[in-house]
Amino acid sequence: MEQKQQALPAKKNIALVAHDGKKAALQAWCEKHQDILSKHTLYGTGTTGHLIERTTGLEVIKLLSGPMGGDQQLGAKIAEHEVHMLVFFWDPLASQPHDPDVKALLRLAAVWNIPVACNEVSADMLLSSPMMETELCRTLPDYEKYLATRQVTL
């Protein structure tokens, strides 16, 4: 598939997700970086979004809980270019009943070439980057061009 260039805006839409065993870590991370996060639009899966909003006062657009479809909702928002960055504190030591949804979410983040942080240190590095508050060019699949070159046969 051919590629195209597209900008990630200076004001980013950031998805915040955490497995149960990592919710406290993500909550503490959001409190630590409240000033930076307040400059962007935040999305969160159900329980995580409520927790962050309640403890930090940051406004979070809340989706369904991850196992109830929230991971898939975020994946759709990534594919539709509505989410520009994913902070997903996942628990590598705990089995999750929705592991296929988690894998699909991470795959979509890779396909659509958005920055992903899976732990506190990588999330710190992303937020401290000078590119965090500037427009950033990315390469992604040119799906529209791909569709335009396909013949429809019935």
TrEMBL record:
<keyword id="KW-0456">Lyase</keyword>
<dbReference type="GO" id="GO:0019242">
    <property type="term" value="P:methylglyoxal biosynthetic process"/>
</dbReference>
<feature type="binding site">
    <location>
        <begin position="45"/>
        <end position="48"/>
    </location>
    <ligand>
        <name>substrate</name>
    </ligand>
</feature>
<dbReference type="InterPro" id="IPR036914">
    <property type="entry name" value="MGS-like_dom_sf"/>
</dbReference>
<feature type="binding site">
    <location>
        <begin position="65"/>
        <end position="66"/>
    </location>
    <ligand>
        <name>substrate</name>
    </ligand>
</feature>
<comment type="similarity">
    <text>Belongs to the methylglyoxal synthase family.</text>
</comment>
<feature type="binding site">
    <location>
        <position position="23"/>
    </location>
    <ligand>
        <name>substrate</name>
    </ligand>
</feature>
<feature type="active site" description="Proton donor/acceptor">
    <location>
        <position position="71"/>
    </location>
</feature>
<dbReference type="InterPro" id="IPR011607">
    <property type="entry name" value="MGS-like_dom"/>
</dbReference>
<dbReference type="InterPro" id="IPR004363">
    <property type="entry name" value="Methylgl_synth"/>
</dbReference>
<protein>
    <recommendedName>
        <fullName>Methylglyoxal synthase</fullName>
        <ecNumber>4.2.3.3</ecNumber>
    </recommendedName>
</protein>
<comment type="function">
    <text>Catalyzes the formation of methylglyoxal from dihydroxyacetone phosphate.</text>
</comment>
<dbReference type="InterPro" id="IPR018148">
    <property type="entry name" value="Methylglyoxal_synth_AS"/>
</dbReference>
<feature type="binding site">
    <location>
        <position position="98"/>
    </location>
    <ligand>
        <name>substrate</name>
    </ligand>
</feature>
<feature type="binding site">
    <location>
        <position position="19"/>
    </location>
    <ligand>
        <name>substrate</name>
    </ligand>
</feature>
<feature type="domain" description="MGS-like">
    <location>
        <begin position="6"/>
        <end position="154"/>
    </location>
</feature>
<dbReference type="GO" id="GO:0008929">
    <property type="term" value="F:methylglyoxal synthase activity"/>
</dbReference>
<dbReference type="Pfam" id="PF02142">
    <property type="entry name" value="MGS"/>
</dbReference>
<dbReference type="GO" id="GO:0005829">
    <property type="term" value="C:cytosol"/>
</dbReference>
